[in-house]
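Researcher: Next entry: 5-formyltetrahydrofolate cyclo-ligase (Macrococcus equipercicus).
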Amino acid sequence: MDKKSMRQEKLKFLKETAKYKQEVLLMRKLFQLDAWHKASSIGITLSMTHEINTYEIIKFALVQGKSVYVPHCDYHQKTMDFVKFSSIDELQEDEKGILMVTGARDINNEMDLLIVPGVVFDLKGYRIGYGGGYYDRFLADYKGTAVSLALEGQLAEIAPESFDEPVHQIITEQRILTGVRL
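Model: Predicted structure:
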């Protein structure tokens, strides 16, 4: 199956799946990781309704005194930077309907821990996102720990391409998979 078909199939799965119980398990596992405990700065997306909910993770990180950074994409330059998040009040939708931080931007692309979104994941840490390549380009130079949260139903066999970048770990409700990214 090609990437586009896999993406469509797994997006349908995500949209049709009640995820609350699995999200709680994923968060618990994330919060137990050494990478979480050691991180003073976290990069994380602002989830859309069909994705694994990241808002409780963001709240917990802020309560713990961690700095939280969320992506800001320049769709014309095809670049992504991470900007400091402080409050839900500073968010608005961008031109693609994705929430972003407004106003002054404190950029940090060297967070200790990056929670990478995706639609499809494999056992070696590779992922299929939404097709823009933003995270693969970002991960190519990222030096911190990259982790993804996924449901078991998002796992599939992926034939990675030369530009695909794996994450260190994928946390599912049943296991923690260690990728090939060293």
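Model: Note for the record: The chain has a mean pLDDT of 92.
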